[in-house]
Amino acid sequence: MRKIPILLGVVLAFMPGIMSAALSRQVVNYNIQVRLFPETKILEGRETLIWLNDSNTEVTELPFHLYLNAFKNNRTTFMKESRGLSRGFKADRANWGRITVRSIRLQNGPDLTPTLAYAAPDDGNPDDQTVMRVTLPAPVKPGESAALEIDFESKLPKVFARSGFVGNFFMVGQWFPKIGVLREGVWNCHQYHAQSEFFADYGVFTVEITVPEAYVVGATGRRIKETRNADGTKSLVYFQEDVHDFAWATCPDFIESRERFTMDEPKVDTEMIFLVHRAHLGQRDRYVRALKQGLEFYSKNYGAYPYGTITLIDPAPEAMGAGGMEYPTLFTSGTTSYLPRGLRVPEMVTIHEFGHGYWYGIVGSNEFEEAWLDEGINTYSEIKAMSLYYGADRAMIDFPGLRIGDFSYQRLATIGSGRFDPIVRKSWDYVSGSSYSLNVYSKAGIMMLTLERILGEDVMARVMKTYFETWKFRHPRTEDFVRIAEETSGRSLGWFFDQVLHSPDKLDYAITSLRSEEVLEPKGIFDGKAIVAGKSKTETAAGADRRTAGKPAFRNTVVVARLGEWIFPQEIKVTFADGKEVRETWDGRDRWKRFVYTLPVKLASAQVDPENRYLLDINFANNSRTLRPSPWAAQKYALGFMGWVQHLLSFVSL
Amino acid sequence: MTITSCYKKGVTEATARPKLMAVLWLFNVSFASILYVIFFRAFNASVGPSLALNDLLKTGDMNIILETLTQTAGPFASAFRAAPIVVLLYFLANVFLQGGILNVLIAPRGRKKFAETFFGGGGRFYGRFLRLLVYSVVVWIPAIILLFAINAALEALGDPSREKQMVFFIIIRVALGLFLFYLVKMVLDYARITLAVRDSRTVFRALMDAVRFVLRKLGTTLGLYYLLGLTGLAISLAYLGVKSLVGATTAAGILTVFLVTQVYIAGRSWLRAAYQAGQLEMLTILSPTRETKQRDNEAKEETAAG
């Protein structure tokens, strides 16, 4: 074994003219040569990895992700959990995928292949080979590096979950042996699960890709060299530092186009690279516009896009399983021919996947253990961007008579997110795939919007910028976000985060009762004297007060109830018939609270959380109650429904 | 020439029978009212006392509507559960209406009271038309087989990687499916007309005669069918145009939209009568022998009786 002191600078010096000041702590340095054989769907690869022990602990074994082994057979953890389905796409049992490490050795040192063993740290599944470990002959001490040479062969599956091929289209993601993350002296290297994405250390990637000459390639980073080979292939070298993964895609039917994106404040100068399948060229302008919007929105609101390129891959028809996926400086979007412009799927997917470049790419969230830090924060960002550029009420669907916003869509998902799982949970521990996505994406996104309304937009903007600046090119945890939110806002937010992040419960406050009853004139026996209404001269002082100037008085009662489990402080707006308003506050702890007003006017309405700050409240309809409901609103929808029924009956009878 | 004369005849006959249009509209509105009541009660029970309802009156925002429906799914479920039952009942009632329409169109105008002719016809032909529905499988099955065969051929021809071609094939499939659906419906129309005109009980024979008639005169029968269809399309476009001009945010607006919808449904009822009258004329002109004799005989009998 050869231990290398911290010589990354020396290694990188091999590339003069490319290097710039490192933005991240570069723990890994990958140099990979890979060749694609399109007929067999096989990748032949040779990887040189220099790994820096950036911890205070000696390391005696190295774990690696072998993600493609998730597609090796029907008994892997991924296939068992997903039952061969991912986002509606089905695994092709005739086209399994795999990755085989032929050899692994220390550079100029001993062969470690005999020590190679598979591990299943999450579920002990003996049929899962998505994590391998090798034992080192001597420990790597803190601050030292290990250089390894790995020969591997990857067979791509037919794509249904992110990576793979369809026809001559290849999405090559999670395709090489990737080392785990040593975090506080403990290896973080999880198996590939159906409901989890990825986590890795930052570093430098130099990758030489060899494909047949007709193939168009898009990859992480910048293309720095292109060579035509005598055997009808070409070799393209890509380079990128300060990223934690490398992905690429290739297809002879890609039409490549490039456009610069520049911004003055903050300073952004990057090249947008579009690889659009020829079947979807009619949709290209939608991708271009959405990517520009994404670059502008995220740069303005969180921080300048720091890389020199951003590549958009448009998956081939039938390869939608590869769509909607993020990788550093590259992402896949998705569309179909003739998709109506009012259906904003390509725009939403483009902005969302580009946004992952911030919350998974630049801020290195652990998607295995705290996926919400990526998916939830990104859903929040996506809702804001889509609403800004396409309209809050029509961001997703925009046809005459049918308009649906992104926020509404995510809120409906939040309402339906069940009471099984909290937002923070290991990705594979959710009760189901839908519970994972509803909580990690939608509920977390709506939680962030709720936080924004609690703190105010300006404060929230500062929170987000501070979080991004503090944790860019690092690996935050949930408590890091909470700490920054509290420090930046100067408020204690434990009451909020403890509930919404760690409890599967729901928020639902309601006005359950609203009454205005006339205060009755005294009748009966009072202090031994019989009183007949209207005839007594011994009316109590209190009674006289209530019946001001002979007008009737009303006992107005409002009951607010906590129907959900979460406890949020509440404001209640009570409106009276004369238009006057009273604002009440309630700590929201008890199951209910009654407010009573004895006044000469009747109640008109009452509303809990009148500004709709708590977007997590699962039922806005019960947040208010009026004594004067409009008779026509119900008529409008009932008659509208009747109209639809009449159309249906006409169709049946024609 | 035949097409336009039958079209004119159909339109004239339907226009001359406003009571027929009214009774068809009344049936439609009666069945729909059942669901209206269920929906209205559910809506009021769930969001009736909420201020959100007032917002819904003003905005009509689909986002709010969706959320309201999601949050209060329970009460609405009853309306949606009842809908298929109402539609099924209407479908069966519709068999009765078909007999009534044809009896009114066949009977000489003004000889009998409308109600007697309409309801008498509905009862008289109900069993036969119901049997026709059962026998119609012999027409539906070949149509479905043909559709599947063409779908399979398109699938074999199609290249999934050529997405535009696949989209085009989907359009062809849908168009073909609709064409066959309406073709079979048209055959059944002619079968019912044949049964009514002949006052025959040989339902299967009438169906086969209708098939032969339509296949022999395919261009003409389709021409009339689609010309009337275009009329229906014009009515629908006019309805949508008028409806879009009215904002249903006030009581007056809501009532206006409701009335416009009822006028449209009445228009559809008129169209339905026009279809039957036009196709009756088509059958009479192009297959005059038995049908014409039958009608002439009936007319003579009625004249003698009168």
In DSSP terms, counting alpha (H) and pi (I) runs of 4 or more, how many helices of chain A?
12
Strand content of chain A: 25-35%
Sheet bearing the most strands of chain B, described? none
What's the multimeric state? Answer: heterodimer
Q: How would you characterize the largest beta sheet of chain A?
A: 8 strands, mixed
Estimate the strand proportion of chain B.
Answer: under 5%
Distance between the terminal alpha carbons of chain A, to the nearest Å? 84 Å
From the helix content, strand content and strand pairing of chain B, which structural class follows? mainly alpha
Rg of chain B is 23 Å
Beta-strand segment tally of chain B = 0
Instruction: Give the overall average pLDDT of chain B.
Output: 88
Number of E-state strands of chain A: 36
Q: If helices are DSSP runs of H or I spanning 4 or more residues, what is the number of helices of chain B?
A: 12
| Sequence stretches where pLDDT stays below 50 over 5 or more residues of chain B | none
Shape of chain A: elongated
Number of domains of chain B: 1
Give a description of the structure.
The complex is a heterodimer of chains A (654) and B (306). Chain A is α+β, with helices and mostly antiparallel strands. Chain A contains 12 helices and 36 strands. Mean pLDDT of chain A is 92; it is low at 1-18 and 536-547. Chain B is mainly alpha-helical. Chain B has one domain. Helices cover 89% and strands 0% of the residues of chain B. In chain B, 34% of the residues are buried. Chains A and B meet through strand 27, helix 6, strand 36 and helix 12 of A and helix 2, helix 3, helix 4, helix 5 and helix 8 of B.
What keywords describe this structure?
heterodimer, A: 654 residues, alpha+beta, Immunoglobulin-like, 8-stranded mixed beta sheet, 5-stranded mixed beta sheet, 32% strand, elongated, disordered N terminus, B: 306 residues, mainly alpha, globular
